[in-house]
Specification:
CATH class: Mainly Beta
Structural class: mainly beta
Number of domains: 1
CATH architecture: Sandwich
Distance between the termini: 14 Å
Largest sheet: 4 strands, antiparallel
Order of helices and strands: EEEEEEEE
Shape: globular
Strand content: over 45%
Number of strands: 8
């Protein structure tokens, strides 16, 4: 199975960075970000790098939310 088959469809915006059809784990650069989830998947934000540690926020599809204290996120 290709990785594109596992990707969320749409765009996830984390502050000023756009992730088109995201999948996998990504670093978060700032302690406070505004997230706009224009994908078809849930985005999970973690308090440690590498999508480990505690879950600090869940951003549902078609939702905009502030996220505080995240160091990484996963989707797809």
């Amino acid at each position: 199975m290709s990785t594109s088959a596992l990707a969320a469809q749409g765009t996830l915006y984390v502050y000023d960075q756009a992730y088109e059809n995201p999948s996998g784990c990504y670093a978060v650069e700032d302690a406070l970000v505004i997230v706009r989830n224009d994908t078809d998947e849930i985005a999970y934000f973690f308090d440690e790098p590498g999508c480990e540690g505690g879950l600090v926020e869940v951003v549902q599809p078609d939702t905009t939310s502030p996220v505080i204290g995240a160091q990484s996120f996963s989707i797809g």
